[in-house]
C-alpha cells in the first residue's frame, strides 16, 4: 500500500564506508554478464549509461563483497569465492535492472503513515473536524512527520485511503476530491506534502465502487485515473479490490501497473489483489505480482487488537515457505498497518508487532494519531536499531525457525553476516516464559571469533558470545525479545554501542 522513495539509509558513521571504486575490481565480469542477458544486451552493451543504475550496481557489489568477507572468517579479503559472488551479484543486478513495473522504487520496505486503520471512513468534518478524512488531517500529519523526527528516520509516505472523492466522477470522467473536505484539491495537497519533504499516497479500487462505496476504477477508466494521479504529482497508489470479479482483477491490476509506468512518474504501486484471492497459489501468482507491484496485501485487514496481530503473524508463519521467497528489493509482502499508538495493543504487544514486521521485511506504515501519540509508543516506532533491521538492504524476509510450546523463534539474515532474532510469546496465560538458547542452536556460527549481541528494545549491548555460549531470555506474555547479532570483527556501524539507540 505504500513505499518510501529512496531506500532508508543510516548516516555515514553507521555503516562501513561504501567505496564505489571497489566496482573496478570486477570489471572482467561485465562482458560475460552482458552475454548472459541477451534480451537486455543492447541496452547494457558497453558502459552503463545511467549513473543511478551504476551506483546501484556498485553498491550491490559492495554489499555482496562485505557479506562474503564476513562469512569467510570475518576477514575483509576477497578471494575466488568472493569474486564469484560479486560476478553473480553483478549478473543479477544487470538482468533485473528493468522489470515490468520499471519504477525503481522501494529497494527497502516503504515507511510512512496512512489514514485507514485509525480514521476509517470518517467524513463528518462538521462534528469531528480534527479527525475526519480531509486535507486538514493530512496537513496536520505532514507537519508532525516533518517536525517530530519521523521523516529523518524514513517515514516519508503519507497516504490517503478510501472516502476522499466525491460520490460521482466529473463531467470528463475523472475522479475528483470532495470539495468540502479537500477544498484546495489534491495537487495543492501534494505540493504541501512535498514541501515538507514527504510523499503523498492516494487510494483507488479495482472495481465499480471502492470498499466505502465511492467511485471505483473500472477497466475503462484505468488509464484516465493513472494520468490523473500523475498530473496531481501523487507518489503512491493503493489499489484495492472491492466490487470486481476475478477476471476483472486479473486484467485490471497489470493494466494499472502499465498505465502508471506510461505516465513517466515514479508512483509506488500497492496491490490488494492477492488478499482477495486467498493469498496463496495457485490462485495467486507471486511471480507475476513481483513484476507488476511494489507491495501487496495478501491477508485480511488488520484490526486494532492483539488477536488480529497474532492471527496475521500465525498466518505468515504457516505459509512462510510460499511467502518468504516472493519478497525482496522493490517488491514486498505487506501484512498491513502498524497499530502502535492506537487503543488495542499493550506496550508488550506493540513491541511484538514491530519486531515481527521488522523480521518480515514488511512495510512500516503507521495508522495512528501522531499529534497525540504517547512518548512510549513514539520511542518504539522511532527505535533506530529496529528500523535498521527492517531496512536492511539485502531485503531477505525472515522466517520462524522453531516453535517451542507458545514461543515462536524468528530469524532474519542481514547484510555483512549480521542477523536479527525475535522470540515472541504467543501465550495468554499471563506467565513470562524462559527461553535458553545459544548462537549455535540458532545456526549463527559462521564467524569463528564470535558475535556481539544487542537487545533491540531494552537498548542494551549484551556482550560478546561464541556459538557454544548459552544465554537466557525471559519473554513476557504477548511480548517479545528481539536481538541484533553482529560478527565480532565487524566495526560497529555507529562506533558506540549506545548510538544504535539514539
TrEMBL record:
Its main location: other. GO terms for cellular component: extracellular region; lysosome; membrane. Its EC number is 3.2.1.-. GO terms for molecular function: alpha-galactosidase activity. GO terms for biological process: glycoside catabolic process; glycosphingolipid catabolic process; oligosaccharide metabolic process. Coiled coil: none annotated. This is Alpha-galactosidase.
Amino acid at each position: 500500500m505504500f513505499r518510501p522513495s529512496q531506500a532508508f539509509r543510516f548516516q555515514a558513521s553507521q555503516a562501513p564506508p561504501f567505496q564505489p571504486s571497489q566496482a573496478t575490481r570486477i570489471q572482467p565480469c561485465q562482458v560475460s554478464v552482458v552475454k548472459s542477458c541477451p534480451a537486455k544486451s543492447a541496452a547494457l552493451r558497453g558502459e552503463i549509461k545511467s549513473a543511478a543504475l551504476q551506483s546501484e550496481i556498485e553498491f550491490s557489489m559492495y554489499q555482496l563483497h562485505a557479506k562474503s568477507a564476513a562469512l569467510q572468517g570475518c576477514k575483509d579479503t576477497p578471494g575466488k569465492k568472493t569474486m564469484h559472488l560479486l560476478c553473480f551479484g553483478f549478473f543479477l543486478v544487470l538482468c533485473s535492472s528493468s522489470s515490468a513495473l520499471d519504477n525503481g522504487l522501494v529497494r527497502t520496505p516503504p515507511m510512512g503513515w496512512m489514514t485507514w486503520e485509525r480514521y476509517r471512513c470518517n467524513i463528518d468534518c462538521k462534528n469531528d473536524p480534527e479527525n475526519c478524512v480531509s486535507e486538514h488531517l493530512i496537513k496536520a500529519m505532514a507537519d508532525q512527520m516533518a517536525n517530530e523526527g519521523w521523516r529523518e528516520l524514513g517515514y516519508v509516505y503519507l497516504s490517503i485511503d478510501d472516502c476522499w472523492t466525491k460520490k460521482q466522477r466529473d463531467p470528463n470522467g475523472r475522479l475528483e476530491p470532495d470539495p468540502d473536505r479537500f477544498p484546495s484539491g489534491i495537487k495543492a495537497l501534494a505540493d504541501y506534502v512535498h514541501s515538507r519533504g514527504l510523499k503523498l499516497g492516494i487510494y483507488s479500487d479495482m472495481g465499480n465502487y471502492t470498499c466505502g462505496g465511492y467511485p471505483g476504477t473500472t477497466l475503462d477508466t484505468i488509464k484516465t485515473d493513472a494520468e490523473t494521479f500523475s498530473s496531481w504529482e501523487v507518489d503512491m497508489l493503493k489499489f484495492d479490490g472491492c466490487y470486481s470479479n476475478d477476471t476483472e482483477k486479473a486484467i485490471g491490476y497489470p493494466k494499472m501497473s502499465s498505465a502508471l509506468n506510461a505516465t513517466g512518474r515514479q508512483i509506488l504501486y500497492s496491490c490488494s489483489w492477492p488478499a482477495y484471492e486467498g493469498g496463496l497459489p495457485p490462485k495467486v501468482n507471486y511471480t507475476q505480482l513481483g513484476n507488476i507491484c511494489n507491495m501487496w496485501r495478501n491477508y485480511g485487514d488488520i484490526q486494532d487488537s492483539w488477536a488480529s496481530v497474532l492471527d496475521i503473524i500465525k498466518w505468515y508463519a504457516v505459509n512462510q515457505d510460499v511467502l518468504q521467497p516472493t519478497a525482496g528489493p522493490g517488491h514486498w509482502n505487506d501484512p498491513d498497518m502498524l497499530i502502535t499508538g492506537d487503543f488495542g495493543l499493550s506496550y508488550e504487544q506493540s513491541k511484538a508487532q514491530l519486531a515481527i514486521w521488522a523480521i518480515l521485511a514488511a512495510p512500516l506504515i503507521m495508522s495512528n494519531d501522531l499529534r497525540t501519540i504517547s512518548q512510549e509508543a513514539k520511542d518504539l516506532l522511532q527505535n533506530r536499531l529496529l528500523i535498521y533491521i527492517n531496512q536492511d538492504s539485502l531485503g531477505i524476509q525472515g522466517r520462524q525457525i522453531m516453535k517451542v510450546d507458545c514461543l515462536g523463534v524468528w530469524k532474519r539474515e542481514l547484510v555483512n553476516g549480521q542477523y536479527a532474532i525475535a522470540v515472541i510469546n504467543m501465550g495468554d496465560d499471563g506467565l513470562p516464559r524462559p527461553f535458553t538458547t545459544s548462537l549455535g542452536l540458532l545456526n549463527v556460527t559462521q564467524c569463528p571469533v564470535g558475535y556481539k549481541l544487542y537487545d533491540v528494545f531494552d537498548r542494551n549491548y549484551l556482550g560478546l558470545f561464541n556459538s557454544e555460549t548459552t544465554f537466557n531470555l525471559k519473554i513476557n506474555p504477548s511480548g517479545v525479545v528481539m536481538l541484533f547479532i553482529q560478527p565480532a570483527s565487524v566495526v560497529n556501524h555507529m562506533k558506540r554501542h549506545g548510538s544504535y539507540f539514539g
